Sequence to fold (291 residues):
Amino acid sequence: MSTAWAQQDILFTQYKNNMLIINPAYAGSRDALTVNMQYRNQWGGIDGAPTTQSVSVHGPMASQKLGFGLSLTNDRIGPTRQTGLFGDLSGRIKVNAKSYLSAGLKVGFNFTSTDLTELTLAQSNDGSFAENNKQTLPNVGLGFYYHSPTFYAGFSVPKLIKNALHNNPSIDGDVTEKRHIFLSTGFVTEVSPLVKFKPEALARIVAGAPLSLDVTGTFLIDERVWLGGYYRLKESLGFILGYNFTPQFKLGYSYDFSTTELQNYNSGSHEISLTYDFIYQEKRIQSPRYF
Fold:
C-alpha cells in the first residue's frame, strides 16, 4: 500500500492581493471597501488540472474598530469540485500612531462534489467508480494580523474542523480536511525616489506534508508598475507583473513553471488578479496601499 499527498486548500501565487482567503483578520485592514477577483489555471496542458476562481469583498465598519468580509471560491481538480462560501469578522486595536493588530473569525461552508462517473476507466463496469459523492461541510477559522504602512505579519488557520471528505462508511483511513497553518510577512523599503522593493514570504504548514514556502520579491516603479518574481520551495518559480491604473484599481498577472519532473508534462500556470478599492470620502487611504 502506498500513500500520496495532494493539494487540498486553494492555491494562489498572488495571495497577497487576496489575503482574506487565508486570514480573516485581514478584513477591513485597507480602510476601504475592497473587491478582489482572481482566476488561476494551473499546470496548463494536463487534462483535469486545477482551475480556481475567487471573489471577495471586505471593508471596515462605521466604528473603524471592526471589519467584515465575504468570500466565494470555486476549485476544480479532475472530477472533484469544491465551492466555499465564508464570512469574516475582525476586530482591531491601535498599537501606535501608524500600526494595528487585528484578530479575525471565519465561518462558512465548503460544498464538495466528486463525480467518479466522469473518469475514463479500463473496465467500464467497475462499480467502485459509479458514484457522485456530494457533501456540505461547515467550518470555522481564526487569524491574527499586524500591519503598519510598510510592514505586515500574519498567522491564521482558516479551517479548524477536520471534516471527513467522504460519506461512505466502508472507506478506511484518515480521509479528512487537514488543518492548514499560514504564516505570512512582508515589508516595503525605498530603493530610490522612484523605486520601492517589497519582499514577502508565506509558509503553509500541514500535518504529514512537506513545508510549503513562497518567497516573493517585487519592485514598485513610479507607484504604478509592479515587476518581480517568486520561488515556491522545491515546486515552482515564476514572475509577477502588476499595474496600478489608478490609486484604487490594480491589475496583476503571474506565470509559474514547475521545477520538478512535472515540468515535462505541463506548459505552466497562469493567474490574473483584479483589485478595486471603493475609498470612503470621509477618510482617504494611503495611495497606493502596499498590503
